[in-house]
Amino acid sequence: MRRVFVGIAGAVVSSLSVQASAADLPARAYSTAPAMMSSIYDWSGFYIGINGGGGSAHNCWSLVADAFGDLPGSEGCHDATGGTVGGQIGYRWQSANWVFGVEGQGNWANFKGNNVSLLFGPDSNQSRVDRFGLITGQVGYALDNVLFYVKGGAAVTGNKYDAISGIDGSTLGSASETRWGGAIGAGAELGFAPNWSVGVEYNHLFMGTHSVNLTDPTGAFLETESISQDVDIGLVRLNYRFGGWGAPVTARY
Fold first, then answer.
1. Contact indicator for 160, 175 with CB cutoff of 8 Å
2. 146 in helix, strand or coil?
């Protein structure tokens, strides 16, 4: 009995000694810090903005028929260049770094140019684009407050055409039309303040070839021209987005 008691006492003393030693050890270090909250720019939401820049419409005229029975043929090409100003409205939604959107844009323009007709020189042909619009979808990739995107969709231009006398500068015939086509483009945008962003954008408009009837000042038929058109536009854009600066995301440090 005495031996049993001594053995039990020894075990108890040994156990207390181990616990005391463990209490003297330093606290366990954690290998990772707890998660903290950060903030990134969020491109989601409705936005509205203005834009301005310049463009060039490449137009080629070919005579189909006229009131005088002349043979058809090419009359040559010219670039109608000038400035433009307008606005845009759209909506974007962001998933991780990818940004998707839809946008409508309308612009006034003054793209104007002419060339001496290869068939009827010194008379000349003049083209003018006085307005255009875009309805496009966007796909972009965001690096925080910097967004790169491509776009594509439908385009419309408002055009005016004039055949001008090379002798006295009078208008021999004129026509106007609204032309629909396609558009592709690309741009980059920088979020520089809460809700505000500025960017640059390039668009190419594929407007195809249309037959256009020109009439003289009395309203009588003068000629039918087959006119092809492609438009290149460069813009600077300023947008205001409805919503906050950024969305909180979890980040580990």
1. yes
2. strand
